[in-house]
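Protein Entry — a single chain follows
Fields — amino acid sequence, structure tokens
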Amino acid sequence: MFLENTVNLNGEFGWIEVICGSMFSGKTEELIRRLNRAKIAKQKIKVFKPSIDKRYDKEYIISHNQKHLSSSIISEASEILSLSEGYNVVGIDEAQFFDLGIVKVCNDLANKGFRVILAGLDMDYQGNPFGPMPALMATAEYVTKVHAVCARSGNLANHSFRTSKNNSLIHIGEKESYEPLSRVEFQKELNLRDKKKANI
């Protein structure tokens, strides 16, 4: 389990934490856990999520097991800087949906003494690094990779396999569109799709 560093409330130092993994791995739940602990420690928290994510509620980040925290919806990463004034800890959910500007925003916040905690998918549905996540992971002091349980084998799952026929990079969905798969099961699905394409 991740153990928090000591937060200097005078803002003399800050850092970045990234929580990453596949869908259904508990990323948002872990983000909420850390933010709630910061609240218990009497730190001022501010939470953000991208406007594209409208699955559960507009005003909250919500985990699959319905844990939630109030959040601000933003369209651009640049909005975070001005909206974070007066806080100690900044939480950002679904970080993969933001533009690459979020990397500079998070580093600017950390350099100003903020603790920045992000959660996001590290890979897209094709198994490729997703959006700004690789750069965020590279510049973060702490990276936590969480895993789901494979829907087929019961092993650790680190892939978000898209079961729907939508081929766009960004497709917001839940269990009706995705299932977590292990590396082996994900490769089986990719091979099967390649064979189907070859036979068309």
